[in-house]
Amino acid sequence: xxxxxxxxxxxQVAGPGLQKWLHYFEIYHRHLDKFVGRRxxxxxxxxxxxxxxxxxxxxxxxxxxxxxxxIDSECEAFGSPDSTIHIGDQADRAMWKRFxxxxxxxxxxxxxxxxxxxxxxxxxxxxxPHILPGGVYICEDVHGAGNRFAEFACSxxxxxxxxxxETGAGGVDAIVATPFQAAIHSxxxxxxxxxxxxxxxxxxxxxxxxxxxxWRA
Length: 217
Ligand SMILES: C[S@@+](CC[C@H](N)C(=O)[O-])C[C@H]1O[C@@H](n2cnc3c(N)ncnc32)[C@H](O)[C@@H]1O
Hints:
Blueprint: H1 4-10, H2 24-32, E1 41-45, H3 52-60, E2 65-70, E3 83-87, H4 93-102, E4 108-111, H5 117-127, E5 136-140, H6 148-160, E6 166-167, E7 173-176, H7 179-183, E8 184-190, E9 193-198, E10 205-208
Bound molecules: S-adenosylmethionine.
The site of S-adenosylmethionine has 21 residues, from strand 1 and strand 2.
């Protein structure tokens, strides 16, 4: 599958600085391709030299708006009509409350900020519920075996498996979805990166109907 993001970064020999692990480009394209041409609202925590802002805008196409968040006020210089810069600390939950009030619609959030577990956890907790149905959350740079943010995020994997099987009429097994299962489609781990996809519409019941009519006793 051609990957326009990878082609973009490979062609960036001049202009604002941009640094991403190369294996992330396959991950981005796999999970974000569905937003291309759909005017998504994208949030990236971590602006640094500003090079990723035009990359996202070019990839998603006209109408895409990128909100860059950074603790360093010098990043304000990278604002443009289609990129809004917000200065704040991603570990500050009051900052996220203000952000949610200012930006009511978010399709994609990429956390490439301070990379500390408590910063990543606050960002996930404050913003995952705010991302629209069908939206995608990505956290980059989860480094180190035993990383505390990874342990926290793995507890979300366990929450995907929650629920008690009830066998109903005709032997149909069913599980009533928890609110987490109803909203979250999947949790994906890659080397140093976490992706969470939200469901487009709530899944309230998982069921396993019987098919076929030949069964072993
Ligand atoms: C890895 S750089 C971002 C790189 C950029 N996304 C790119 O692709 O080129 C990390 C940025 O996160 C910012 N940062 C560090 N701690 C932060 C925090 N607590 N809240 C928000 N931004 C933070 C730094 O100022 C720095 O600009």
